[in-house]
Design brief:
alpha/beta, four-stranded parallel sheet, six-stranded mixed sheet, 2 domains, Rossmann fold
Length: 284
């Protein structure tokens, strides 16, 4: 039977690690290692799923259904969570089936997820097949996901001025904005090109959550060509940061965020002496 709503494990606070780097000038940088929450359901994936799993159980569902591309880490995490907590899982995958499966989809099927492929045109409507499912949106962002992501901010006991995260669907930023300490600002770094729509998504998710938080904004200039696109400058930054500080970054999400933090620090966008916390959300 699926886990009951009262039996989900508590998430211990993830480490807050100082980063000493002369390139930051007078900015103090702390990295919140949310990527260490769980090896199979890391970072914001666990935070987004946590209360959704509880709600699915409370409603008596035994099957989770969600959406994603062939390389979606949300698909991977949902499959892992379903296996661990006793839910069947169905993944609606954008595009045609390819054999052999890539590592993400191979992992998902190994966890018991049933994959159903739809055309890119049909996928736009996020079709839900007949049956009884607890439906998770693409990327996992909904009001319950916002609630879970807000807990990441609430865990931070150090004073800070800015709380930063990468943004793909808006759920993590919407949640962090609710958990801010007084006087702080949540800053999201869009990993998509042409992502102005994300501001409306954050507002929509906040409305679904039932309240609004105003102290947040988005940066759109650090996508490096678009989702999952990379540049030599980004690759060099990711490799150098990992070598200097022993903290792994990925070029799709967290690398773009920290590249942006360093660029804003160099441009004087943060006040002298400001403390910036960057949340390592895992891959996605």
């Amino acid at each position: 039977m699926p886990v009951t709503s009262g039996l989900l494990p508590e998430t211990p606070p993830t480490p807050l690690v100082p980063v000493e780097d002369e390139r930051l000038g007078g900015v103090r940088l702390l990295v919140k290692r949310d990527d260490l929450i769980d090896p199979d359901i890391p970072g914001n994936k666990w935070r987004k799923l946590k209360y959704n799993l509880a709600e699915a159980a409370a409603q008596g569902h035994d099957t989770l259904l969600t959406f994603g591309g062939a390389y979606s880490n949300h698909i991977r995490a949902t499959a892992a969570a379903g296996r661990r907590y006793g839910f069947r899982t169905v993944g609606i995958i954008r595009g045609e089936e390819h054999s052999p499966l890539n590592p993400v989809l191979e992992y998902a099927t190994a966890q018991g997820m049933e994959l159903r492929y739809v055309s890119r045109t049909a996928y736009r409507d996020k079709p839900v097949p007949p049956g009884r499912f607890y439906v998770l949106p693409e990327g996992g962002s909904n009001a319950l996901a916002v609630r879970g992501c807000a807990e990441a901010a609430a865990e931070i006991t150090e004073p800070y001025d800015y709380l930063c995260c990468p943004v793909g669907t808006g759920g993590t930023l919407a949640g962090l904005a609710f958990g801010l300490r007084p006087g702080a600002h949540a800053l999201g770094f869009a990993v998509l090109k042409g992502a102005a729509f994300l501001a409306d998504e954050v507002r929509r998710l906040q409305r679904e959550h039932g309240e609004a938080a105003e102290e947040w904004s988005l940066e759109f200039g650090f996508h490096h060509g678009g989702y999952a696109r990379r540049t030599p400058a980004l690759d060099a930054f990711v490799a150098d940061f990992t070598a200097r500080h022993g903290i792994p970054l990925d070029p799709v999400y967290t690398g773009k965020m920290l590249y942006g933090v360093y660029a804003l620090a160099a441009a004087g966008r943060f006040p002298p002496g400001a403390t910036v916390v960057a949340v390592l959300t895992g891959q996605g």
